[in-house]
Each structure stands twice: as structure tokens, then as C-alpha cells.
Design a protein that fits this description.
Elements lengths: L28 H7 L3 H12 L3 H4 L6 H15 L6 E7 L5 H8 L3 E8 L2 H14 L3 E5 L12 E7 L8 H11 E13 L1 H21 L12 H17 L6 H11 L2 E8 L2 H15 L7 H25 L7 E7 L4
Parallel strand pairs: 1-2, 1-4, 2-3, 4-5
Antiparallel strand pairs: 5-7, 6-7
Helix pairs in contact: 1-2, 2-9, 4-5, 7-10, 8-11, 11-12
Length: 335
């Protein structure tokens, strides 16, 4: 694995080669307050804060389960493409979930991971190294990607566009760094209606769980108060970093306006989201040792069954805007 992530003392978003800043996993109360008025600072603080525990929090793995999931998202909009791509980049990589699993499935030979959070880039590079994948990484602002024109054959991202202040500018940058004929695939973007019901269910689950575990024998199911307080602080930042929700048709319009051709979208998770969001919130509210293998199998198998229902039945009768996640793809013209 190669990397040009070099420690330095730069400000968030500085992408000068060789000057990537160090992760900051321990944001102060003052920094959190400042971040509430600065979405890009909030992105750095929140994702640096979450980086080392992010894979556990979201049940991310780099085995068959998540390889199949990532490939399924890709194939939903780009199944007809010849593989592998020579070089791919992940925008807003987080811990590398989408690109690393796509590379393991044969989608790309070589990868580059980018994120505004130094902590996330650090973890993504470590994950790539552990998997033996050819990946380099940079701390990068999605609105000013620090790579030359016509560098990549493929750009991917998962749950990233809704964090970016100027989505259309980011898509223009994506098209700039793509080679003519290159493709982008962005998955995991919340729809406006899906985000509404997901947040409502999450808040209700959190309130019910934290209330019930205050009493009697159920107190052993309550996380220590300091952990709950930290989760609340993280939630305050999360409310700042989650900037957008999308109508699938609006995503297509932005992609075309940025200059993409052959634009298409797909949506997923309706019934599956109704289970997934309460499950994730419950897991965040109780001590992890209380939830064993049986719980994990219930959550995963339940999600799989409901995803089958979404794909085979509900997608045929329910309008796309009611599903939780949107996927968008497009091609750089000129090949």
C-alpha cells in the first residue's frame, strides 16, 4: 500500500500535497460550539471523533457480507460496465467501506481514498493495508479535489453528498478528475421523505430506551451517563454535518447540470429502513456486551428479508421518493 498522508499543522480542508493534518479525536467543548456555526469544521471534528469506532458503530466489515452489499449498490446503477476499472477514487471515504469492498469484488485495481477528516483517512488507509489493497490517501475538500484533471477511471462515494455544502460544485470536481468516459457512482444518499421517518424513529427509540433503562433491573442495560452525554454531543454535531436530503429527480438534475451524461438513479430501503434505524439507535443506547451474536443475526437477517421485500415487491408499487436511500451515477463526456 502507498500513502502520501503526511502530518502537518494545516487548517481543515487544506489539501496542499504533503501537508495533511493530524486527526483530532478529542474535540473540546469550545471546538464543538464553534463547529455548530461552521459545517466544514463540524465535518472534521465529528468524523475524527468517530473514526476509530465507526466500523463497529455501523457494523462495517470487509468480508463477504459487506462486499456483497457494496457491490449490490454499485450494480444497481452500473451493472453493464466492463470491469475492472484501472484506478478509482472514493470521495468522503470514511473508513473506506465502499471503495475497499468494491475493490475486493473486482470493480477496481488501484484506489485513492479522500476525506475532509484526517482521522477517517488514517483508518481507511489502515484498513486497506490490512486487506493488502493498492490504495493511497489524501485529506481533501470535496469542493476542491487535490488531484489533476483526467486522473481516475471511476469515482465512488457512500453517504457523502449530503455532507457537502455545494453538491453541484463537488460533482463538477468529480467530473474534472475523471477521465473522459469515466463514471461516478454515489450511493447511500438520504431522500427527503426517508430522512424524515428515519430521524423520527431514531428519536423515538432513543427516548424510549434511555427512559426505560433508568428503572429497576433494566438499569444494567443503560450505558454510563458520560457515554450517553458524549453521544448527545456527537448527535449535536451530526445535526450540523447532515446538510442535505434529496429527491432522486433533483439528484439527476444536479448531475446533469454539473456536466454528466447518461445520468441515472435508483432507490432502496423502505421496509428495511423501518427496522434498521430503530436497531442502530437501540445499539447506541445500551452497553454492547448486552447484545450478543443472536441479536446480530436478528438484525442482519431481518434487514436482508426486508430488503428482499423492498426490491421484489415494494419497489414495483411505491414511488422512488419514499425509499430511504438514493444512488446516482453519471459519465464524463468526451470518450
Amino acid at each position: 500500500m502507498t500513502t502520501n498522508m503526511t502530518p502537518g499543522n494545516t487548517t481543515p480542508g487544506d489539501t496542499t500535497p504533503g501537508s495533511d493534518p493530524e486527526p483530532n479525536p478529542h474535540a473540546t467543548e469550545e471546538q464543538v460550539k464553534a463547529a455548530l456555526a461552521d459545517s466544514k469544521l463540524a465535518q472534521v471534528l465529528y468524523h475524527d471523533w468517530e473514526a476509530e469506532t465507526y466500523d463497529d458503530k455501523w457494523s462495517i466489515s470487509y468480508d463477504e457480507r459487506c462486499i456483497d452489499y457494496a457491490r449490490g449498490r454499485f450494480d444497481a446503477v452500473a451493472a453493464d460496465q466492463p470491469l475492472p476499472y484501472e484506478r478509482a477514487m472514493e470521495l468522503g471515504c470514511g473508513t473506506g467501506f465502499f471503495l475497499l469492498n468494491l475493490m475486493q469484488s473486482g470493480v477496481a485495481k488501484k484506489g485513492s481514498v479522500t476525506d475532509l477528516s484526517p482521522g477517517m483517512v488514517k483508518v481507511a488507509l489502515r484498513n486497506a493495508e490490512n486487506l493488502g489493497l493498492d490504495v493511497d490517501g489524501r485529506v481533501a475538500d470535496a469542493e476542491k479535489i487535490p488531484y489533476d484533471d483526467n486522473t481516475f477511471d471511476l469515482v465512488v462515494g457512500h453517504a457523502v453528498l449530503h455532507h457537502i455544502p455545494d453538491v453541484e460544485q463537488a460533482l463538477r470536481e468529480v467530473l474534472r478528475v475523471l477521465k473522459p468516459g469515466g463514471r461516478f457512482v454515489f450511493a447511500g444518499e438520504p431522500t427527503t421523505i426517508g430522512d424524515f421517518y428515519a430521524r423520527w424513529m431514531s428519536r423515538a427509540t432513543w427516548a424510549a430506551t434511555t427512559k426505560v433503562t433508568k428503572v429497576g433491573p433494566l438499569q444494567s442495560w443503560r450505558r454510563p451517563q458520560e457515554e450517553l452525554d458524549e453521544s448527545s454531543r456527537a448527535a449535536a454535531l451530526e445535526a450540523v454535518v447532515d446538510i442535505h436530503t434529496f429527491d432522486p429527480a433533483e439528484l439527476e438534475r444536479m448531475a446533469r447540470s454539473a456536466g454528466a451524461t447518461q445520468v441515472g438513479t435508483a432507490t432502496e430501503e423502505l421496509a428495511a429502513a423501518m427496522l434498521g434505524w430503530p436497531v442502530r439507535t437501540f445499539e447506541a443506547a445500551v452497553p454492547p456486551e448486552k447484545l450478543g451474536w443472536g441479536w446480530a443475526m436478528f438484525a442482519f437477517n431481518g434487514w436482508k428479508r426486508l430488503s428482499w421485500l423492498d426490491e421484489k415487491v415494494l419497489r414495483k408499487v411505491v414511488p422512488p421518493k419514499f425509499f430511504y436511500n438514493a444512488i446516482v451515477t453519471g459519465i464524463k463526456p468526451g470518450a
